[in-house]
Structures are given as structure tokens and as C-alpha cells.
Amino acid sequence: MSDTYVGAIDQGTTGTRFMVFDHGGQVVANAYTKHEQIYPEPGWVEHDAGEIWQNTKEVVLEGLNEAGLDAEQLEALGITNQRETTVVWDAETGEPIHNAIVWQDRRTTDRVEELQEADKVEWIREKTGLEADAYFSATKAEWLLENADPVGTDRGGDALEDRARNGELLMGTIDTWLIYNLTGNHITDVSNASRTMLYNVRDLEWDDELLEEFEIPRAMLPEVRPSSDENTYGYTDAGGFLGAEIPVAGALGDQQAALFGQTCFDAGDAKNTYGTGSFYLMNTGNEAVASDHGLLTTIGFQLSGEPVQYALEGSIFITGAAIEWLEDLELISDAAETAGLARSVDSTDGVYFVPAFTGLGAPHWDGRARGTIVGMTRGTRKEHLVRATLEAIAYQTRDVAEAMEADSGVETTSLRVDGGAVKNNFLCQLQADILQTEIVRPEVDETTALGSAYAAGLAVGYWEDLDSLRQNWHVDEDFQAERNRQEVDEKYDRWKDAVERSLNWAEDEGE
After folding, report:
1. What is the 3-state secondary structure (H, E, C) of 75-118?
2. Annotated binding residues, as ranges?
3. Which residue of 132, 237, 299, 367 has the fewest C-beta atoms within 10 A of its own C-beta?
4. Which residues define the annotated binding site for ADP?
5. DSSP state of 303
6. Beta-carbon-side half-sphere exposure of residue 270 (alpha carbons within 13 Å)
7. In this structure, are residues 138 and 209 in contact, taking their beta carbons and an 8 Å threshold?
8. Model-level pTM?
């Protein structure tokens, strides 16, 4: 197998990456490009699904070309994706009827509050493991059918709903959109289905009552398959952009892919991914553990012919995006500057930053929370604000970690971390101090792409079993807590005060 590999398409919130891995799980090709972030109104976030597909083709070809590889050397393709982001497209033309509505988008907050007022929150949670929130796909798809302007036609919203019932429109998250364009098949995996707020995670099927609630016709929905599928999702077209028939055999939502790539295959294993947001997942095995502390019960992954593995998840909406905001304000010119600036001061000098730009996720679930900076004085400098931003990332993770321990009964003694931000040693040490636990960074930190490659490779026999994947995982560096717990706890209590001041700030969805 020295000259064959597995490819992974990692379609994220800010861009699309293509990576190729060898049998040892090492990177042999890597290409990346960004796509446009579209903000039609405050709180609205969209992507051009056509641009995402075009970029996907370009990065795949670029990655293969730069590594000197032929497409025929790929044993399989895996897909991982920004979750919840929703696309509706014409089944005949393959054209989207509207921009994709991104997971961060808050336009359906009013609809979620209707569900809350109708006492349907617990009903939804019991079926899906999710909070009733604009984060998930159900209200996004509902909005699209009610409000999208059909491309190339003067028919209105009612026509869209009729066409959806007739199977003329298809819906999917980004994995489904890419699988459809790669293979022609309308398929998703269980991990992505579990993020739609339309899928019953216990019965493992689309839920008729939820489809009725959100007026989503079943004919629109993709077939749900295992995350690693020996039957494959289909093959690329030999006459298409790759010029070869490659099986597409694995798919995982990005956070589940990172869980898989970190080899968190056993109950109690946990990881945190630091990207645009941060996502803390703990494998709970074959049991769907209900949360009493604001976490989500979600599907981690499923291998062919095996039961699903569940996970508890804490979703933090804004972490890396807060660093991007510092760049937008020109307080920094590059994310790498943050470590040096933060180290240049002993503390934040009492400044706390709650980056609730799109509301707060776990464990607070407040869609009307907004970004808040407290504790500033005339002596506050940009160094204090930069340090407060890094501390906010670590504090939000502790919010989730405490909820995770309370729900699972498992004390976190070690946390595997990945994502772009973990290259920052200052942040990793800060996280160890604030959590008072070991932080472990692997050699290959692009574990999201690696996880989807593992899923696809397992399906076609490129890797034999989970044990062979465990052998590929190696530690780059670990970080032990160095600060005094009492000092950390006092500052964390002050953080919780700052969070309280951010809650329920926006009075309408336009704020």
C-alpha cells in the first residue's frame, strides 16, 4: 500500500481543505481555499453552495497536483463538513434555490421562541438529543421553503413547498451536497442526520412528527447511512473532474470526525476542537446519555454493521472567530501575534470578554446573548483585550467541561485537543490551568480531515480495524496545570459574572 492513499475533503465554515493521508496517518497532500462569508442582515450568515462545490473541485486537483499524485492512487474519499449548514437544491438541475444558511445564522430565533412558548423544547430534546435552537437545520430548511426566491422562476414560496412534496427539491447538509455532486446520490451519514433536529437519535430514522412540525416533506430528505460504509455512497464519475472512479465511502460531521481522528473510540474518551467555534465531545458508547446541564446528546459515529456510538457535546459558537474579530479591528495583523501579546501582560487587569456574537451555545443556550466586554479602565490596552480573548476561549471550555462531568459522572483527567488554535502553546497552557487538567496535542492536528479519511479507509479495507488507527496516534506535546486552583477558581467565578451580563441582550432578531 506504499503508493496508495486515502483522500479527505474537509469543508469548513471559512474554507475547504483537501488532504491525503498514507497508511501511517501522515499527511502527504494538503490544499486549502477560503470562500465568501455573506451577511445579508445582522445575525444572518450565508454561503454560496455553488462556490463551495467549485472550490472543492479546485482544492482536490491542487492537492493531488502539488503532491505529484494521480487520482487513481486514492483508495477512497471521505468527507467531513461544517454541520447544520443547510442547502436546498433543484433535483433536476442540481442548482441551489438559495444560498446555504450557515449554522451560525440566527434568523429563525423567533421560530425557536414559538417552540419554547408551545412547550415543545423537551419533546424535541427527547427525540433528537438537541436543544430547540436556530443553530440546527430544521428551522433553516423551513425558512428556505417559506421564503427563498426560486432561481430562474417567478413562482413563490407555496410553489417551493409543492415542489418539495413532489420530490423536485432536495435538502441536505454540506456532506449531502458534496456527496450528491461527487456521486449523483442523495445520502447523508448518521452523525450529520443527528444535527438536523429532524432525526430521532434513538429510533435512528427521520421523525414523522418533527417533519410535520417543520413542514419538511420526507421526499426532500437524504438516505441515512453509516459513517464508514462498506457499501459506499457511490463513485466519482470517470468522465468528471477527477477522471477516475473513486469510492466515496465515509462521512462525518466535522466534530464527530475530530472525535474519530483523535481515536476516541471508547466510552469516556474526550476531545475539544478549536476552530471558528469550539466543540467538546465525549464518547458515551452505545448509550444515548441525556443531559441535565445544557449539553447535546448526539451520534458520534457508526461503522458498517455495528451499533451507533453516541456522544455528549458542548457546542461553543465563537472561539477562533473571536481572534478573527481582533484582526478585523486591526488590534492584531495575524493570529500568531496573540501569544506574544498575551504573555506581555501578567493578567487581563480585570477585563473579561464574552464573545457571544451569535448568542451563546452550551451550556447557556441563549440566542439573544451578545458580545460583552466588562472591567475596562482607562489603563486597558490591547494586550489586555487580546489576553481576555484567549482566556474567554478557555473559560467557555471549562463551562462545558463542568457540565460534561456532571452529566457523565466521568472526571476529565486528560483532554485531547485539535484545530488551528492549538498551535498556540500559550492557549494550550492556559487551557490546562483553567481546566486544571492535562491537555494533550497530537502530532497530526488536522484530526477532522484525518477522521473522515479513517472512516473511508476502514470501509474499503485500507485500514484493517480500529486498533490499527490507534497505533497511528502520537502525542506532539502535553501541558500540565501550573497555576494554583484557588486563584483559577476565583477568576472563573468572575467570568460567570461577565456571562450573566451578556445574556438576553438582543431584543429582536435584527440585533
Report:
1. EEEEEEECCCCEEEEECCCCCECCCEECCCCCCCHHHHHHHHHC
2. 13-14, 17, 83-84, 135, 254-255, 276, 320, 420, 424
3. 237
4. 13, 17, 276, 320, 420, 424
5. B
6. 24
7. no
8. 0.85
